[in-house]
Amino acid sequence: MIQTNVLDTELKGKDLLTLMDLSPNTIQALVDKAIVLKKEKLAGSDHGKPLAGKILGMIFEKSSTRTRVSFEAGMLQLGGQAIVMNSKDLQIGRGEPISDTAKVLSHYVDGIMIRTFSHSIIEELAEHASIPVINGLTDLAHPCQALADLQTVFEVKGKFTGLKIAYIGDGNNVAHSLMVACAKVGMDISVATPQGYEPDAAITEAVLGYAAESGANVVITNDPVAAIKDADVVYSDVWTSMGQEEENEIRLKAFNGFQINDALVANAKPDYIFLHCLPAHREEEVTASVIDGPNSLVFEQAGNRLHAQKALLVEILKN
Ligand code: CP
Ligand code: NVA
């Protein structure tokens, strides 16, 4: 059931920089709303154009397919509009301060979505903007991805508690947001990374706190076989994230043994589902046999970015 009051309190006119700011009830309500919006869309509804007259400005300092197109399509489907800005074409690309950019854009648009490098950049933008700021990926977090991930799991499994997700790969942005999301909604999560690539210690500490509240079991390990044992959901991300391209060779060696392949998924539950935020590198972090196999839901998951973000946009930008 959609808990409108919780959504109003935590989202209306607010920023979404990480899922750490949201209560478990709000996260569940967003998932429920995303599922409703998806059904409406499939039935041909325009949702009553709740964002008519609203404009979302989107700043990209890194490449994007899913985030860019799903946010833009989402705004249009909700009756609003989006302006896509590549940071190279903005004056920030020539050194104009983020704080000035935030103040200026606040006069033109109703909300800003940004994909950037350091998380401190989005924090600075949010501090100086008088309009909501949404995280479309920083080096620390990818909250919109995690909302779509939860939606995908909930649609297929119908619950969060009693499920185990195994994330195998780099302990960075996507892993961080998945950990926060799972711990908040009570889903067990095991994260397996090579040594030296573990999740951020402060995020892990916070996640353990959320897990203590929800009852989720959180395991951080360097053993992919232990992590994937009896998992209901298996999750992977690239080994070399955007901005780390120079480390590619080192990372290929470091992540040896962390590929999700047929031998590894044989340890998961027989009805496991495979998720990946995409883009994927077949035969690197995951084999084609898994990502293109019968247990993979990666394209449904990518599709859910649209619905999860529409739920978020309606709640953040509505009058
Ligand atoms: N998963 C994701 O954020 O994809 P893009 O980089 O294509 O936006
Ligand atoms: N970890 C990846 C996610 C891309 C959506 C990156 O930061 O490049």
Your description of this structure?
The protein has 319 residues and is α/β, with parallel strands linked by helices. The protein folds into 2 domains: 9-141 and 305-317, Aspartate/ornithine carbamoyltransferase (Rossmann fold, 3-Layer(aba) Sandwich); 145-301, Rossmann fold, CATH 3.40.50.1370. Helices cover 44% and strands 13% of the residues. The protein is built from 13 helices and 9 strands. The protein has helices at 4-11, 24-42, 66-77, 98-105, 119-128, 143-157, 173-185, 201-214, 224-228, 248-254, 262-265, 288-291, 298-317, and strands spanning 55-60, 81-86, 111-115, 133-135, 164-168, 188-192, 218-221, 233-236, 273-276. Strands 7-6-5-8-9 form a 5-stranded parallel β-sheet. The chain has a 4-stranded parallel β-sheet with strand order 2-1-3-4, sandwiched between helices. Helix 3 crosses helix 13 (298-317) and helix 7 packs parallel to helix 8. The two termini are 22 Å apart. The mean pLDDT is 97. Bound molecules: phosphoric acid mono(formamide)ester and norvaline. Phosphoric acid mono(formamide)ester (CP) is lined by residues 64-67, 137, 145, 277-278. Norvaline (NVA) binds next to helix 7.
